[in-house]
Design goal:
Layout: H1 4-10, H2 16-23, E1 30-32, E2 38-40, E3 53-59, H3 69-82, E4 87-91, H4 96-100, E5 108-109, E6 112-115, H5 117-122, H6 127-147, E7 154-159, E8 163-165, E9 175-177, E10 188-190, E11 192-194, H7 199-206, H8 210-219, E12 221-225, E13 230-232, H9 233-236, H10 239-244, E14 253-257, E15 262-265, H11 280-289, E16 292-296, H12 301-312, E17 322-327, H13 329-335, H14 348-366, E18 372-377, H15 384-396, E19 400-404, H16 406-409, H17 415-425, H18 441-453, E20 457-460, H19 462-474, E21 481-484, E22 504-513, E23 518-523, E24 542-543, E25 549-550
Parallel strand pairs: 3-16, 3-17, 4-15, 4-16, 8-11, 17-18, 18-19, 20-22, 21-23
Antiparallel strand pairs: 1-2, 2-14, 5-6, 6-14, 7-12, 9-10, 12-13, 14-15, 22-23, 24-25
């Protein structure tokens, strides 16, 4: 059996100009990056004012068994095109951290992939590198301001920004810098975040244009003065310089699926520590070009799904017309307590227990007033009784479950799903946001926990309480809230699988991200710099004398 990368390398790739023409782009809107990649600089005046239908693909809480959410999103987009509906795909860019760490490649799988798979997983057009250098330049300018007499009275102990790198590197979580004498800077404790967790990444993906990007960068709070007053990038007078470093990165990247569906790959915030969706620019471009725009949100519906609907949707020209929740029998059995080594065996009792996780996600997504479709990503080990149990469970919740076999068949394996999704988008939808903009941060948090997670509520640490009190005085207490928590559980404990009850979410601290326009609530043991596993995926990646890469997935 061929690996994902072997399938991708054997696929016929159309010249990027042909993909751009299929998408409906004008030649002046396309900035080629070689033969099979391009940047898109959309001119809305050249296209219809009417947006296409928006389909959001999300999933149950992920497990080590895999759910294939991105794979299903790719297959669904291909299937919609096969059904005669002009469709554009919009996905996030993979981070090198997970590619080299535990996850491996992140461009779909099997015959449901975006290509060129190697470029997408490694450097693509350099967006992550631009963000990394922009973040590090900004922090260097902050440190330089302190070194050069500290005219803004910044307290080095109260700086919020960290340097970034697009690598899982636990050694950099906590560092001491500025050692070596007075010519080497001002000594202080700090650390590194992975690039995907940076505020600049969040800002890039939420900016509507270059002017908005610069305005958001100027609003970034870099830290506090000795008398606890916030200091922004605007006060440093370097917003223009940082924006200039991102002038190309703001444009979405155009590639293609194996089925030659135009695909916009742009932005890569993680959903467990950021908002977890591709850029406003990419989604709006897909909506402008296609009859249907298929997009995804990271991890489960409790993370990426909720953040897409509560943080990103208010900035879009429209709300999703349908939500697709991806599940697998294998993953549901793991939520029911089955060991990964025993997933090939039929286990109806464990599946029944694990279905409660899917049930919570169905209820939480239906709460938004948008039609929901469940798709079961098929595996050969699924038994007839297990599939029937899932069908019956989902039907009792008023939702249709549709099988998909996109890894082996690409778009052909999702045609039934495509038909069901088209039908769902024709149903009336009345979008109901989870919370009101004027709700306080604690009110927003409690609504997320009780409605989306199925928990009891929120418990704040003393530090978090003090922070909210100070944010209220500063006028920040009504910003949207991004919950940073484990992706493996509805709770903040990764070991509590399925649908735990009567749990509380523990917020240890908040991080204000005024440029992005939200507060981040750090829960449990969530980290903004992941580490590498004992046997990182990097061990499997090889390259031959001709430059051909293997082992990416």
């Amino acid at each position: 059996m061929k690996t994902d990368i072997e399938i991708a390398q054997a696929a016929e790739k159309w010249p990027i100009e042909k993909i751009a023409e299929k998408a409906g782009l004008q030649p002046e809107e396309v900035i080629p990056y070689g033969r099979d990649k391009a940047k898109v600089d959309l001119n809305s005046k050249l296209h219809s004012d009417e947006d296409g239908k928006l389909i959001l693909v999300t999933s149950i809480n992920p497990t080590r068994a895999g759910e294939g959410k991105s794979t299903v999103a790719v297959g669904l987009a291909d299937a919609l095109n096969l059904e005669g509906h002009k469709t554009i795909l919009a996905l996030r860019e993979p981070s090198l951290g997970p590619v080299m760490g535990m996850k491996g490649g992140a461009a779909g799988g099997g015959y449901s992939q975006v290509v060129p798979m190697e470029d997408i997983n490694l450097h693509l057009t350099g967006d992550f590198h631009a963000l990394t250098i922009a973040q590090n330049t900004l922090v260097a300018l902050v440190d330089n301001s302190i070194y050069q007499g500290n005219p803004l009275n910044l307290d080095p102990r109260q700086l919020l920004l960290k340097r970034t790198i697009d690598v899982n590197d636990r050694e950099l979580r906590n560092v001491v810098m500025g050692l070596g004498g007075r010519f080497s800077g001002v000594p202080r404790e700090s650390g590194f975040d992975i690039t995907a967790a940076s505020e600049l990444m969040a800002i890039l993906t939420l900016s509507t244009d270059l002017e908005d990007l610069q305005n958001r960068i100027n609003r970034i709070v870099v830290g506090y003065t000795y008398d606890k007053q916030p200091v922004t990038v605007a006060q440093l007078k370097v917003g223009g310089a940082i924006t200039a470093l991102l002038k190309d990165a703001i444009h979405p990247n155009l590639v293609q699926t194996i089925g030659h569906t135009p695909a916009l790959i742009h932005g890569g915030p993680f959903a467990n520590i950021a908002q977890g969706t591709n850029s406003i620019q990419a989604t709006e471009t897909a909506l402008k070009l296609g009859d249907f725009a298929v997009t995804e949100a990271g991890f489960g519906a409790d993370l990426g799904g909720e953040k897409f609907l509560d943080v990103k949707t208010p900035l879009l020209s429209k709300h999703p017309d349908a939500i697709v929740i991806v599940a697998t029998v294998r993953a549901l059995k793991m939520h029911g307590g089955v060991d990964r080594n025993d997933l090939e065996k039929e286990n109806l009792s464990a599946l029944r227990e694990g279905l409660s996780n899917l049930g919570q996600h169905i209820k939480s997504m239906k709460r938004y007033g948008i039609p929901v479709v469940v798709t079961v990503n098929e595996f050969t080990s699924d038994t007839e009784k297990e599939v029937q149990l899932v069908d019956d469970y989902v039907r009792d919740l008023g939702v249709t479950a549709v099988p998909a076999n996109v890894w082996a068949k690409g778009g052909e394996g999702a045609r039934e799903l495509a038909k069901e999704v088209v039908k769902a988008t024709a149903e009336p939808a009345e979008f109901k946001p989870l919370y009101n903009p004027d709700d306080s941060a604690i009110e927003k948090l409690n609504k997320i926990v009780t409605t989306i997670y199925g928990g009891k509520g929120v418990v704040l640490s003393d530090k978090a309480k003090k922070q909210l009190a100070s944010y209220e005085k500063l006028g920040w207490d009504k910003l949207p809230v991004i919950v940073a928590k484990t992706q493996y559980s509805l709770s903040d404990d990764p070991k509590k699988l399925a649908a735990p009850k009567d749990f509380e979410i523990h917020v240890r601290e908040f991080v204000p991200k005024l440029g992005a326009g939200f507060l981040v609530a750090l829960t449990g043991k969530i980290l903004t710099m992941p580490g590498l596993p004992k046997h990182p995926a990097a061990e499997n990646i090889k390259i031959d004398k001709d430059g051909k890469i293997s082992g990416l997935f």
